[in-house]
């Protein structure tokens, strides 16, 4: 019997509007509070829109920064390449200057040898002409 009484009490209490869920179309807030809630909701929507726009701008700035970073790294690579080319050119100039000095020294040495050979050839030719002239004189005088 107690169980039936408890079930009956629960069923009656559920039909009571205090405990039941009813659908109402009215807001049970004072006018001032409802006005503040509406104002806060409008501000929240505006803040969300501003946040979305800010996130979009941040994304655009990040892509611009990445683009600028790639341009900067390209110029750094070019600068390093130019420095390497200048260093290589300087080394080539040193090697060329060294080769020019060696060739000039060799040219001077060959010039001195040529001068010596020309002088020796001149003396030999003069001596040969003198010997031939002497022999011709000797042969014709006999």
In words, what does this structure look like?
The chain is mostly helical. It has 2 helices and no strands. The protein starts with a helix and ends with a helix. The mean pLDDT is 83.
Report the C-alpha radius of gyration, rounded: 57 Å
Q: Helicity, in percent?
A: over 70%
Could you tell me the number of beta strands?
Answer: 0
Q: What portion of the residues fall into strands of 2 or more residues?
A: under 5%
**Which term fits the overall shape?**
rod-shaped
Largest sheet: none
Counting H and I runs of at least 4 residues, what is the number of helices? 2
Are there runs of 5+ residues with pLDDT below 50, and where?
none
Question: How confident is the prediction overall: mean pLDDT?
Answer: 83
Element pattern in H and E: HH
Summing up helix and strand content along with how strands pair, one would put the structural category as: mainly alpha
State the end-to-end distance.
185 Å
Task: Put the structure in a nutshell.
The chain is mainly alpha-helical.
Key phrases:
mainly alpha; rod-shaped; 2 helices; 142 residues
Give the secondary structure arrangement, pairings included.
Elements: H1 2-15, H2 31-141
């Amino acid at each position: 019997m107690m169980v039936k009484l408890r079930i009956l009490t629960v069923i009656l209490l559920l039909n009571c509007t205090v405990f039941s869920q009813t659908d109402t179309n009215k807001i049970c807030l004072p006018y001032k509070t409802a006005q503040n809630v509406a104002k806060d909701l409008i501000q929240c929507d505006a803040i969300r829109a501003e946040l979305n726009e800010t996130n979009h701008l941040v994304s655009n700035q990040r892509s611009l920064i990445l683009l600028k970073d790639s341009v900067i790294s390209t110029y750094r690579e070019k600068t390093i390449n130019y420095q390497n080319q200048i260093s290589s050119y300087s080394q080539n100039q040193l090697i060329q200057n060294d080769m020019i000095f060696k060739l000039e020294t060799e040219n001077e040495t060959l010039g001195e040898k040529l001068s010596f050979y020309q002088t020796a050839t001149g003396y030999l030719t003069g001596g040969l002409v003198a010997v031939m002239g002497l022999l011709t004189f000797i042969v014709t005088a006999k």
